[in-house]
Amino acid sequence: MDTARTARSWHLLTAAVAWVALLLQLVLVIQGSVVLDDAAPPGLSTRLIRYISYFTILTNLLVAVTTTTLTLRQDRFPTWWKVLRLNAIVGITVTGLVHWFLLRPLLDLDGADWLADKLLHVAVPLLAVIGWAAFGPRGKAERRLLLASLAYPVGWLVYTLVRGAVTGWYPYPFLDVGLHGYGGALAACAGVAVLFVALTWGFMAADRRLPQSRH
After folding, report:
1. Spatial contact of 110 and 176, defined as CB atoms under 8 Å apart
2. Across residues 126-134, what is the average pLDDT?
3. What is the largest CA-CA distance in the chain?
4. Residue 2 confidence (pLDDT)
């Protein structure tokens, strides 16, 4: 099997796992599944809004979309796609790291909830990062895209804090102003921002050094 075919197969696998994980989690949300607390689930509309408010969900969606396009013999890479691809790879890395070190100890899941959690936070991050490192495509993580790529995480943080101030709900405990106050929440935001910048620079540097591969 040639490199280009292997690359498309890997991206197809990544896209399939991401889409399945997103659909499974959506079904669980519709059914009223509770993950991080034992409170009774809110109404369906609120659950759906919360579903799309999770950074994990949005980033898995970016991975699903960009890897899907890569399976379709994509030969054009406009700037907006490069930004989304960089957001997907950096964001899914952050998703995996934050989940493993901060959120995993808080979870006690089983059945479909456990499966969805592992697909979204472990399987997709591993598949996406390994696929990017092995198959690229290279030369798409350009330095000029740094500021544009930070619009996604910064925008999400602002949305999360503003919505949390209005509703009192935060998707992740370390951002909960009710638990940590604005000082603690903003410190967590600063830490996440530093992690994003460091990882973005790291992926850009790696992109220049990794060997070229045909896609």
Report:
1. no
2. 96
3. 55
4. 76
C-beta separation of 153 from 56 below 8 A: no
172-211: per-residue pLDDT in tens?
999 999 999 999 999 999 998 899 999 999 999 999 888 7
pTM of the model: 0.93
In the structure encoding, which two tokens stand for residue 191, read together? Answer: 């830490």
Helix (H) or strand (E) holding 190: helix 177-209
Evaluate whether 116 touches 155 at the Cβ level (below 8 Å). no
Distance in angstroms (rounded) separating the CA atoms of residues 87 and 151: 9
- What is the per-residue DSSP string for 4-70? HHHHHHHHHHHHHHHHHHHHHHHHHHHHT--SS--SPP--HHHHHHHHTT-HHHHHHHHHHHHHHHH
Count of Cβ atoms closer than 10 Å to residue 31 Cβ: 11
